[in-house]
Amino acid sequence: MQVASRTTYFAADIKKGKEGEKIFVEDFLEFMKIKFNDVSGEQKFQIMDTDYTSQLGMYEIKANYKDDGKIYIEEYTNYNKELGPIKEGWFFKTKADTLVFVSKATRTMIIIPFTGEFKNHYEKIKQKYPLKLNAVSVRGKSKWQSAFRCIPLSELEGFYSEYRKPSSE
């Protein structure tokens, strides 16, 4: 497999993710007055790919929604054998009850209860959409290349809700 010439840096990726998490907290958790814990910095929750907990469950936040009617599902954290062992992505590792895809541009959120029914549906439809490689990611001396599928929301009818905090006007 060819290693991509473009790279991203882990610290920058984390910073982008934090922007989406902030929107989720302000526009959803705080607005709905849901008591929560930010566990994104705790190793045991990082292993479970979970960012927030509340009495309603656990949330995994993805700040990659582009308001284009598509979500991105990471199947592999590393897909490139030249960079290290193949590792499954957050879709297979998360223990979250809810996935939240956040648009930084419009603050729109796609909210998906992460149920067995949803996972089974994804397994049935995913082959329609090619596995795509991200740029190589770098953190210190470590490198990896994740792989994802771009799934149209039309394939997920009945499994998601679109949310945007009501304007105060």
3D structure, described in words:
This protein has 169 residues and is an alpha+beta fold. The protein is 24% helix and 34% strand. The chain has four helices and eleven strands; from the N terminus they run βαβαββββαββαβββ. It has a six-stranded mixed β-sheet, with helices on one face. A five-stranded mixed β-sheet has the order 1-9-10-5-6. The chain starts with 6 loop residues before the first strand and ends in a 6-residue tail after the last strand. The model has no long low-confidence stretch (mean pLDDT 93).
Helix content: 10-25%
Strand elements, count: 11
Residue ranges: pLDDT <50 for 5 or more in a row?
A: none
Task: Output the strand order for the largest sheet.
Answer: 2-3-4-7-8-11
- Overall mean pLDDT stands at 93
Radius of gyration computed on alpha carbons: 16 Å
Q: TL;DR?
A:
With 169 residues, this protein is an alpha+beta fold.
Keywords, separated by commas or semicolons:
169 residues; six-stranded mixed beta sheet; five-stranded mixed beta sheet
Topology:
Elements: E1 7-9, H1 10-30, E2 36-38, H2 43-47, E3 52-54, E4 57-62, E5 70-78, E6 87-88, H3 90-93, E7 98-102, E8 109-113, H4 116-125, E9 132-139, E10 142-152, E11 161-163
Parallel strand pairs: 1-9, 4-7
Antiparallel strand pairs: 2-3, 3-4, 5-6, 5-10, 7-8, 8-11, 9-10
